Each structure stands twice: as C-alpha cells, then as structure tokens.
Amino acid sequence: MNLLAISTTNKAALNQMYNVAFSERTALNQLVHVLQDKLVKFDPKLKEVEITYDPNK
What we know:
By secondary structure, the protein is an all-alpha fold. The protein has one domain (3-48). The chain has helices at 3-6, 28-39. The radius of gyration is 13 Å and the shape is globular. The protein starts with a helix and ends in an 18-residue tail after the last helix.
C-alpha cells in the first residue's frame, strides 16, 4: 500500500485520482478499511460509516 499517496498534505494533489498500483493486489475491502483508519483522525465519525454493497455487483 502506498501510504505516501494517501497521506499527502500537498493541496494541489488533493481531490485528484491516481493509480497507485505496485506489484501486489489490494482487495477493495482492504483499501476501504485502510482509508477509513487513516481518515478517522480528521473526522472520528468516519469510524461509524457502514460499508454497503450494491447487490447487483
């Protein structure tokens, strides 16, 4: 996981989309939980967000 990419404070880099793939697979659930764990320090309510899935996927 590219922790530098998800923890930048560079305002020009915020709200942009990046492909940070590198040599290993990351499951979507794993990515969601890593992001949630990192972002909860900025907004504690994020820990309470329930992950929902589209039944058609």
